[in-house]
Design brief:
It is a single chain. The protein has 51 residues and is mainly α. Helices cover 49% and strands 0% of the residues. It has helices at 2-7, 21-30, 34-42. The longest helix has 10 residues, at 21-30. It is globular and about 30 Å long. It starts with a helix and ends in a 9-residue tail after the last helix.
Length: 51
């Protein structure tokens, strides 16, 4: 579902919510996907507007 949202430009903001070491491990795995690269490099996220 998340990949479909990215493919259809339906994401405005990204964040994380970690409470356990397993969450950090899952986040590390996500950083190695093509979708996170697409979000961080080529995608018009609005996170920068928060600062």
């Amino acid at each position: 579902m998340a990949e479909d949202l990215v493919d259809n430009s339906l994401i405005d903001f990204i964040s994380s919510d970690m409470h356990h070491l397993r969450h950090a491990a899952a986040f590390g795995d996500a950083l190695r996907t093509t979708y996170i690269e697409k979000l961080l490099v080529d995608y018009p996220l609005k996170n920068k507007m928060l600062f």
